[in-house]
Task: structure prediction
Amino acid sequence: MVKNIQAEINIGVVGHVDHGKTSLTSKLTGKWTDKHSEEIKQGISIKLGYADAEFYKDPKLDGISAYTIHKVHPLTNNKTEFIKKVSFVDAPGHETLMAVMLSGATLLNGAILVVAANEECPQPRTIEHLLALKMHGIKNLVVAQNKIDLVSKEEALKNYQKLRKFLDDDGYKDAPIIPTSANFDTNLDALIYALLKTIPTPTFDLKAPLKMQIVRSFDINKPSTEISKLKGGILGGAILQGVIKVGDKVWVYPGLEKPFEIEVKSLNSGGCDYKGAHPGGLIAVGTDLDPFICNSDKMVGQIVCDPKIDLKLSTEIDLEYTKIERLIEPNKTDIKSGEKIVLVIGSSACLGIVRKVKQNNLELILNKPNVFFKNDKIAISRNINSRWRLAGYGTVK
Result:
């Protein structure tokens, strides 16, 4: 990376399975985000993938073609000027992995919705992913009409018209649609331009108590490393408010059996080390934790925070429920007492049992302690026709 600066925003890459999300992300970042062995074997994303990208502009060019990810413009060979560094979050599109996608949506400042031009529009996960973005209040959206190399001009226009109507009907009438082909680098300049114009850097509260959502955790030690040379476990995620510095003592909630304190040993993002980090982009926090605790994403769903933050840690939660009307398989019944549902609280997916229903208010018992904050949006999935489907969301009371 040309500049040792932190990424400014998190941009999700979402959409139906096999529409080219990971391929498009790799073209924008130079990194293939499917690194897990099962992802490579199956050819699909299973976990959230992360990669940083830097956007540049040729100062001697006017218009969309001036934008690139290269330090030297590939067409003019002119030296380009740095504009912005962003983090991409590549979410899985398969229906059985909706909980993973929803956990990633809590971190996003905007998104690219990838839709294949050679398939009927909209596909099931296209609908559900857009609903998930809308549920989390993500208004800044750019649409990549991908795989245009596989269709004729007439077919691409027909697909575009269906896509435009779908977006307009769901409240995204201002979302630009960029025709792309990830395999041939088609219109990447236009996509970068649209991202810069559509997804601004938000104003973050740096003085608020630290709140960081953990979505990955891992052990960076190689096999047979000497005990004296072992490094602590890594917690990866996004800072939502406040700042974190090397040497800080912070708390992890809900913890293992209970919350516990850790020391920040290092901060890294996109291969760059930092002494301090703020909201924007994805951060890897080196800790003094036993690396076994962090291995294989064992700490996903945790919150790293200042102990002064106003949070609730409980196995009970009260929600105001909002049903999503547009479902692939219509949900014809209302939620009932005793029903089991799946909730995505932050980046934690857990099972809940409905204890009481009163109009749109739900009282639930969770299968494990969770951390939540007032007015948080929590995705709710119900078992519909023997499948867990996104049914609505709850607002923490």
About this structure: Residues 211-303 form a domain with the Elongation Factor Tu (Ef-tu); domain 3 fold (CATH 2.40.30.10). The first strand starts at residue 9 and ends at 15.
